[in-house]
Amino acid sequence: MFVARRVRSSVNFAKGTKAFSALAGVDSTKTIIHQTTHPKAKLEKEKLKFGTTFSDHMLEIDWDAEKGWGKPLIRPYGPLNIDPASSSLHYALQCFEGMKAYINDDGKIRLFRPDMNMARMNSSMERLFLPTFDSKEMIECIKQLVLLDKDWIPKGDGYSLYLRPTGISTHPHIGVSASSKAKVFVILSPVGPYYPEGFAPVKLYADDKYVRAWPGGTGNTKIGGNYGSTIMPQYEASKKGYSQILWLFGEEHFVTEVGTMNLFVYWINENGEKELVTAPLHRGDILPGVTRDSILQLTRGWGEFKVTEHTITMPSIVKAQKEGRLLEIFGSGTAAIISPVELINYNGVDINVPLDAEDGKSGKLTKRIWKEMTDIQYGRVEHPWSVVIN
C-alpha cells in the first residue's frame, strides 16, 4: 500500500489503521492530573459568547508509531507544544468533534450520546490515516476532565459546557505522508443559549458557485479541511444579508448541508404523504450528525408521518413551495440543536418557508422536535441517550 511505504522503514504498518491495534491503547486509569494553581475568573453566564471562554483544564494524549498512545494528561489550559513542521499545520491533517455536557436542577451532569461522537471521531481519524482509539476509554478520560471542571458548567435551560475533542498530526517533517506522531486534546467552553431571545429563523443562500463536499471526498467526516474553504463563501453570503449557505451539488442542485448543519425538509410529497426528509449518507458528502440521527429516530418512533433519507433537489423544494406542499425546513446540529429556516434565496429569488402563525419564528414540528431533544439532554425526560457521569 503506497501510504504505508511512505512511513519510516522502522515502522511496520499493515493495511489501514488496523496496523495500530497492536500498540498501546488509551488507558483512562493511567490519567495524570495536574491541577491549576491559578483558577480563572468566571464570566456571568449571561455574558458568555460561543467558543470564546474556556475552562481551567484540558486533556491531552500523545501517540507515536513506535509505542502507541501515551498516558492521558489533564493539565491547566494553555498553548500546545508542537513542531512548526507538524503536518497538521501544512496538510490539514486534523479533525474534531462538537459535543456538550449539561447540568440539571438536581446537579446531575450529563453527556448526550458521547459514543456516537467518539465513533465519528474515529472515522475522521481513520480517513486521515491517524491512529484510532478505544471509544469507551476516551469517554472515560473526557468524563474526568468534565468532572474536574464541573463548576464551569452554567446552569439553566439553554446553557451547557461545549466540548471540543480534536485530533491532529504532530508528525515533525514536511512531506505528504502518513504520520508517525499524533495528538488528541479536549478543551471545554461554557456556552449560553444559541438563541437568547428564543427561536430565530435563519435566511439561507443556496450556493451553486462553490462546493463544500462531493462523493468520494471527506464530507462524511469532521475534518478541518471541510471548513476552511467555506469561510470566504459564507462571508459573501452574509454581505448579501443571509445567515448561512445552503450547499448545493451537481447540475441537479442536490441539497446537501446548511452552514455546519444537516438540513431537514418537512413537506407533502408528490404522492400526497406528509414526509420529513433529509439528504442520504450513502453518497459520502453528508456528515452523519448526532442530532440528525437523533431526530430521525425520534420522529420514526412517533409513527405519525413518513420519515426518509433520500436525495432532495432545490427545484423540488421550489415546486413544493409553489404548490403549497412545503410545510417546514430546519437545520440540525450540536450548537443550535434545531435552527428554523424562514427563506432560501435560489437563483436570485427568495423562496419563503411557512412559519407558525403564532410567533412567526418556527414551525410546529420544529418546536416539538426541539422540545423533545432538550428534554432528553437536560434530563427532564429519562432516556439512554443522556449519560449521567456523576
TrEMBL record:
It catalyses: L-isoleucine + 2-oxoglutarate = (S)-3-methyl-2-oxopentanoate + L-glutamate; L-valine + 2-oxoglutarate = 3-methyl-2-oxobutanoate + L-glutamate; L-leucine + 2-oxoglutarate = 4-methyl-2-oxopentanoate + L-glutamate. This is Branched-chain-amino-acid aminotransferase. The lineage of its organism: Eukaryota, Sar, Stramenopiles, Oomycota, Saprolegniomycetes. Its cofactor is pyridoxal 5'-phosphate. Pfam families: Aminotran_4. Gene3D superfamilies: 3.30.470.10, D-amino Acid Aminotransferase, subunit A, domain 2. Belongs to the class-IV pyridoxal-phosphate-dependent aminotransferase family. The modification N6-(pyridoxal phosphate)lysine is found at K222. The keyword Protease does not apply. Signal peptide: none annotated. CDD domains: BCAT_beta_family. GO terms for biological process: amino acid biosynthetic process; branched-chain amino acid biosynthetic process. Its EC number is 2.6.1.42. It comes from the Eukaryota. Keywords: Amino-acid biosynthesis, Aminotransferase, Branched-chain amino acid biosynthesis, Pyridoxal phosphate, Transferase. It comes from Thraustotheca clavata. One of its GO terms (molecular function) is L-leucine-2-oxoglutarate transaminase activity.
